[in-house]
Design goal:
Elements lengths: L1 H21 L10 E4 L9 E7 L6 E8 L2 E9 L6 E6 L7 E8 L4 E7 L4 E3 L5 E3 L8 H29 L5
Antiparallel strand pairs: 1-2, 2-5, 3-4, 3-6, 6-7, 8-9
Length: 172
């Protein structure tokens, strides 16, 4: 029984750690950074890019790299606090995959985004239409799900062993 309590306490601690690591990060502490509001856009879609605590009043170039391409999305000027929020349209010819988005200036910051795309399928009327895109989960979320299912499997095994020991006849 003590083992079951220890396993349960370890599981709770692991889940708490996973939730802490998977929570939204904030740059309010003055850390330099860049973020993208839509982490899984489609080619040609508009994204919102936010820069925090870069050099005040500096010119920032926003660049997308990955899958063998480099696309200059545009330029923006940071405000007096070194912050900016602006929108850019992704190129129409991007292949699905993971890309690095860099805000490059006197100081630089980088984040990543995953471009998704659907394939074209024929409808019953003969026209081509967009098939639904597969949902891609961020790595942190995948790790969290694996951890949750591992803990649940461990708890199930521990419970089964505990029940089996409890069901054995007591020798007199």
């Amino acid at each position: 029984m003590k083992r079951l309590h220890t396993l349960f306490a370890s599981s709770v601690a692991l889940l708490t750690l996973q939730l802490a690591l998977l929570g939204e990060s904030s740059l309010a502490d003055g850390t330099t950074g860049v973020s993208v509001q839509q982490l899984t856009p489609k080619p040609g879609q508009e994204i919102t890019v936010k820069g925090d605590s870069l050099v005040a009043n500096s010119q920032i170039e926003v660049i997308l790299t990955g899958n063998g391409i480099r696309a200059d999305l545009g330029n923006v000027r940071a405000d007096a606090n070194g912050d900016f929020v602006t929108q850019f349209q992704l190129p129409d010819n991007l292949e699905p995959g993971t890309y690095q988005l860099q805000a490059a200036g006197v100081e630089s910051a980088t984040t990543q985004l995953t471009v998704v795309g659907g394939s074209m399928v024929a409808s019953s009327a003969g026209e081509m239409e967009q098939a639904p895109a597969l949902r891609h989960r961020p790595l942190g979320q995948k790790i969290g799900l694996v951890a949750v299912f591992t803990v649940l499997a461990g708890l199930g095994i521990a419970f089964a062993q505990w029940r089996r020991r409890g069901a054995e006849p007591v020798s007199q």
